[in-house]
């Protein structure tokens, strides 16, 4: 009886091990493969977390605040990437990216407006926003609106006193930009419709922050600034009765605006390309661009080419 019971128990144990053994082995093999499979990265792709390199972006002081702010957020996401942002004006940005001294040339103007055709043809245009510019005056001046003809008179030296345009008896002090400035080129092209000479006695300053400070502190001063620099410390005048705001720029009724370009010489390398793609991402366009007073390029209802032609 005992021998029969032992035989039965032996047979049950043998069948149980035979049934369970292969499955356990399979499960063990699968468990060993799973982590490796989850971490696999195609050989031709670099994980975003491993993006590394350095970028030098030079040029437009009007675009500088946006690039500076976005670059800090990009570097937070990619600790192995270093981005240096410098001003100097659109002409400097275009010249340096063309000459290979900078990875990105920031500019308020099309490359064709500053460089010869051969140099401009080597550059790739990346438009990241729109910037509008407004005439600004010392807050003590009682003028609220200036026509195109009045602005031309002021910046060509034919009008020298505010009483000639409806203000008080006070000498006009011009705060202009140097000839290399993209802001000056845009203002002359779309607000004045003509180039101007540097007038004796006028102040020249490229830094938008310094221009704002000079206009704020200098009696009778007039200059022009990107909307991103406007605040209550200075007075913004209408242009031919039209306010400089996003709605009027987007629908084409306010003409003093330009694209913000970030040019590269040829197609950008991996890290520059990633940064440029970040500049036009929803994160930057819906937050930084709006917060800093620029206009997302996607909101424009009109387009402008290098010759200034407007289309809808």
TrEMBL record:
Spans annotated as Disordered: 26-50
Signal peptide segment: 1-25
Main location: membrane
Membrane topology per record: Lipid-anchor
The keyword Ribonucleoprotein belongs to this UniProt entry's keyword annotation: no
Transmembrane segments: none
SUPFAM superfamilies in the cross-refs: Periplasmic binding protein-like II (SSF53850)
Protein localization: Cell membrane
Entry superkingdom: Bacteria
Record keywords: Cell membrane, Lipoprotein, Membrane, Palmitate, Phosphate transport, Signal, Transport
Keyword Kinase: no
Residue ranges, compositional bias (Polar residues): 41-50
InterPro entries to which the protein is assigned, alphabetical: PBP_domain, Phos-bd, Phosphate_ABC_transporter
Protein purpose: Involved in the system for phosphate transport across the cytoplasmic membrane. Part of the ABC transporter complex PstSACB involved in phosphate import.
Family to which the UniProt record says this protein belongs: Belongs to the PstS family.
Protein name: Phosphate-binding protein
Source species: Paenibacillus woosongensis
């Amino acid at each position: 009886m005992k021998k029969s019971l032992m035989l039965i128990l032996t047979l049950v144990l043998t069948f149980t091990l035979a049934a369970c053994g292969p499955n356990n082995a399979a499960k063990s093999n699968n468990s060993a493969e799973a982590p490796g499979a989850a971490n696999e990265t195609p050989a031709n792709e670099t994980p975003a977390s491993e993006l590394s390199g350095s970028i030098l972006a030079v040029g437009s002081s009007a675009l500088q605040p946006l690039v500076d702010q976005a670059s800090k957020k990009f570097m937070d996401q990619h600790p192995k990437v270093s981005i240096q942002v410098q001003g100097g004006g659109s002409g400097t940005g275009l010249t340096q990216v063309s000459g290979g001294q900078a990875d990105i040339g920031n500019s308020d103007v099309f490359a064709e407006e500053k460089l010869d055709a051969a140099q401009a043809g080597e550059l790739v245009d990346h438009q990241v926003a729109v910037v509008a510019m407004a005439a600004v005056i010392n807050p003590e001046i009682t003028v609220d609106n200036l026509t195109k003809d009045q602005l031309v008179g002021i910046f060509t030296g034919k009008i020298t006193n505010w009483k000639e345009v409806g203000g008080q008896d006070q000498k006009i002090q011009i705060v202009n930009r140097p000839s290399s400035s993209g802001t000056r080129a845009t203002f002359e092209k779309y607000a004045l419709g003509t180039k101007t000479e540097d007038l004796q006695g006028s102040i020249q300053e490229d830094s938008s922050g310094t221009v704002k400070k000079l206009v704020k502190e200098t009696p009778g001063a007039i200059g022009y600034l990107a909307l991103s620099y406007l605040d209550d410390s200075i007075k913004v005048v209408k242009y031919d009765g039209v306010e400089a705001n996003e709605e009027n720029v987007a629908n084409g009724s306010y003409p003093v605006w330009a694209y913000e370009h970030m040019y590269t010489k040829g197609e950008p390398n991996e890290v520059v390309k990633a940064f440029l793609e970040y500049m036009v991402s929803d994160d930057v366009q819906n937050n930084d661009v709006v917060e800093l007073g620029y206009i997302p390029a996607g909101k424009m209802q009109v387009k402008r080419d290098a010759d200034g032609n407007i289309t809808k």
